[in-house]
Amino acid sequence: MQPPLRSICVYCGSSKGNRPDYLEGAQSLGRLLAESRIRLVYGGGSIGLMGSMAGACLDAGGQVTGIIPHFLDRLEVGMEGLTEIEKTESMHERKQRMAELSDGFVVMPGGLGTLDETFEILTWRQLQLHDKPIVLLNIAGYWDLFVHLLEHQVNEGFVKPAHLDLFQVVDTPEQVIPALARQPADRGDIRSKWT
To answer: What is the value of pTM for the model shown?
Structure first.
């Protein structure tokens, strides 16, 4: 049985992107998490999709935990007024803490950092270091090429077809929480967290 979703980690851009849909999607997701009483765990920045999503969640009465390395706190202008903020010594520690605090993961449009986080959390699930749901929020088809890349890796024999089931793809913020709740069946012996 799927455990309750108490905290969701969202990976997204520290830029707003070129389409209004991205910003609207981030704000909508922030509000939906607040309305569902699910804590938002994110990278702690006040700019781009990150800041807009966190602000919308807070404005809707939600709980927001930001995890940010000291050096990015200065570069990204760490967000003030969060429910909770943790400052880490490194990016590795940041990603570890975000994962530890979360019951699932949502990937919104973003840049290289978002890709890094996405591949890592997918790899950790592939290696059975966690069995938490992962959802790509495919606003305006943003993740289409990413999915095609993974399908290409399958076709070329570098990724197993079953690994395409490590994540789900949805098109709207409203589909995110139901998708997270549709956890695939337990794949067996999951190693202890973050070994």
So the answer is: 0.91
- For the segment 76-85, what is each residue's pLDDT rounded down to a tens digit? 678 999 999 9
- Determine contact, residues 116/161, Cβ cutoff 8 Å: no
Name the residue with tokens 């969701």.
Answer: 8
CB within 8 A of 30, min separation 6: which ones?
40, 52, 53, 54, 55, 56, 57, 58, 60, 62
87 - beta bridge partners?
68
**Integer Cα distance of 179 and 59 in angstroms:** 24
User: CB burial class (10 A; 0-12, 13-18, 19+) of residue 154?
Assistant: middle
Token representation of residue 153:
């890796």
Kindly give the residue spans of alpha helices, DSSP state H, lying in the chain: 20-35, 48-59, 70-75, 91-100, 112-126, 144-155, 176-181
Strands of the 168-170 sheet, one edge to the other:
84-88, 64-69, 39-42, 7-11, 104-107, 134-137, 168-170
**Segment 33-52 mean pLDDT:** 96
Within 13 Å of residue 181, how many CA atoms lie on the same side as its CB?
10
